[in-house]
Structures are given as C-alpha cells and as structure tokens.
Design brief:
Helices cover 0% and strands 19% of the residues. It is mainly β. It is globular. The chain has one domain.
Length: 54
C-alpha cells in the first residue's frame, strides 16, 4: 500500500508524520483508508514517484 504517515507509535521519530511512504502488508495488497504497520515494513517514497495507481 502507499500513502502518507498520519501518526507514529511510541519510540518512532515524529519526523515520519506527513512523509509519503510505501508499506508492505504481508499479503498481495491492501484496500483500506488507514492501516497500522511496523516501521520495519515502511519505505519512504522518493520525490516524483506517485502514490496513485490511476
């Protein structure tokens, strides 16, 4: 899945909030408006790479 970080948990640097990211869900995709994932499963998207699949 891809999107922006809305919040972080205890012990995670707050600078992640607002960053565009890709997150591994452990399955073949994700259909959700919001999800909780481990920081280890998150990768920041580089500038110019769209989150949209449309």
């Amino acid at each position: 899945m891809a999107g922006r970080v809305l919040a972080v948990g205890d012990g995670v640097d707050a600078s992640w909030i607002g960053r565009p990211v890709w997150a591994f869900t452990g399955v073949g995709g994700a259909y959700a408006e919001r999800a909780v994932v481990r920081l280890e499963d998150v990768t920041e998207l580089p500038d110019g790479l769209s989150r949209s699949t449309r």
